[in-house]
């Protein structure tokens, strides 16, 4: 289904979330390869994609900082 949607929209990149399986996938499209980036859920980490000019976007994660005294 992902490949069909990407082909129908004529795009090479798809970014979506949130799931419990964050990852970067290479997908086969009618006009070559595409990339699917899946953001993780925000249960224990913050997920984001960083894109800079002329660089491949990166899927990044930073665990939440917890304060053990919180709620005391």
Q: Tally of extended strands? A: 5
Any low-confidence stretches, pLDDT <50, length ≥5?
none
Helix content: 10-25%
What amount of the residues lies in strands?
Answer: over 45%
Mean pLDDT: 88
Largest sheet: 3 strands, mixed
Shape: elongated
Question: What is the H/E string?
Answer: HEEEEE
Radius of gyration: 16 Å
What is the spatial order of strands in the main beta sheet? Answer: 1-3-2
Task: Describe the model.
- It is a single chain.
- The mean pLDDT is 88.
- By secondary structure, this protein is mostly beta strands.
- The radius of gyration is 16 Å and the shape is elongated.
- It is built from 1 helix and 5 strands; from the N terminus they run αβββββ.
- A hairpin with a 7-residue loop joins β4 and β5 (58-63).
- The strands form 2 sheets. The chain has a 3-stranded mixed β-sheet with strand order 1-3-2, with helices on one face.
Task: Summarize the SSE layout with pairings.
Layout: H1 2-9, E1 13-19, E2 23-29, E3 32-40, E4 45-50, E5 58-63
Parallel strand pairs: 1-3
Antiparallel strand pairs: 2-3, 4-5
Features:
single chain, 72 residues, mainly beta, 3-stranded mixed beta sheet, two-stranded antiparallel sheet, 49% strand
